[in-house]
Amino acid sequence: MTCIIAGRALQSLITHRVPVSAFQTVITNRLLVTSCAGAATTSTRSNCSSFARHARTNTMGKPKVVFVLGPPGSGKGTQCEKIVAKYGYTHLSAGDLLREERNREGSEYGALIEDNIKNGRIVPVEITCALLENAMIKTQEASGNDRFLIDGFPRNEDNLQGWTKKMADKVELQFVLFFECSEQQCTERCLKRGESSGRSDDNAESLKKRFNTYINDTVGIIKHYDQEQLVKKIDASVSPDEVFEHVKAAFEQQKQ
Questions:
Q1: Residue 118 C-alpha from the chain's centroid
Q2: Above 70 in pLDDT, residue 59?
Q3: Beta partners for residue 151, in sequence order
Q4: Exposed (0-12), middle (13-18) or buried (19+): which is 52, by Cβ within 10 Å?
Q5: Contact 179/75 with Cβ under 8 angstroms?
Q6: Measuring CA to CA, which residue among 119, 101, 78, 90 is closest to residue 212?
Q7: What are phi and psi of 106, to 5 degrees?
Q8: Nearby residues of 166 by Cβ (< 8 Å), 6 or more positions away
Q9: What is the C-alpha to C-alpha distance for residues 106 and 101, in angstroms, rounded to an integer?
Q10: How many other C-beta atoms lie within 10 A of the C-beta of residue 191?
Q11: How far apart are CA 211 and CA 242, in angstroms?
């Protein structure tokens, strides 16, 4: 059984290009889960499960995070796909996580999330942080991957303060990748995307509200991280391949 678990974990690590150092964490977590499942009594299983949760918390290192920011339509999602393929990061889109939660049957936050998204407002930070933290924990437990691209967050001062309070000590923020693009070009991209995306916010009215929100709120976040010398600015007005050349330079510089 141990060999089977190790083999599956190693295959997952190779598939996701996870650092070898994560292998021990994955094996420890999966062996603990397997041992608990085979415990003879309810009491033993309960104690074992508690120990397993504690061990997983201790063996997992701090997630390494790159924030990906920019106006709607600046190509964040496209570039995140390329980064995942080349560098093995896990892409977490704050917007996608919120839409998934909105659509989840029985979600107590679904109506609130939908109302905020349709009106171009920012969802309460407590909800977004909880979804992001849960997604990172699940990914680390499943594959051992501890590198994450967080796309579209933080977006305003409330997001920043909420993240700092709840998550700053739990992660290692590597840098902020900021895509710069004009409102006109981004709007054209979003409207074209809206023809097939089915997204309720890819329309002219919602886009105007989203840009106003971006200008009023998110620009201040960029300034904040720029003062900490964490921002890497990328010209997103050119083709996706050209943009990615600049993105690669930012990641290679991080390695040095």
A1: 22
A2: no
A3: 68, 93
A4: buried
A5: yes
A6: 119
A7: 90, 5
A8: 126, 129, 133
A9: 9
A10: 14
A11: 24
User: In the chain, pLDDT over 90 holds for what percent of residues?
Assistant: 50
Count of beta carbons in the 10 Å neighbourhood of residue 248: 14
For residue 132, which phi and psi values (nearest 5 degrees)? -65, -45
**Euclidean distance between CA atoms 186 and 171, whole angstroms:** 31
Q: Rounded to two decimals, what is the model's pTM? A: 0.71
Q: Which helix (H) or strand (E) holds 255?
A: helix 240-255
DSSP code string of 40-62: SSHHHHHHHHHHHHHHHHHHSPP
Number of helices (H), then strands (E), belonging to the chain: the values are 12, 5
pLDDT digits (tens, 9 = 90+) for 210-219: 888 888 888 8
Overall average pLDDT of the 38-48 stretch? 49
Cβ-contact 81, 91 below 8 angstroms: yes
Per-residue model confidence (pLDDT) at position 201: 79
Tens of pLDDT, residues 73-97: 999 999 999 999 999 999 999 889 9
Distance of alpha carbon 154 from alpha carbon 125, whole angstroms: 9
pLDDT in tens, 113-123: 989 888 878 88
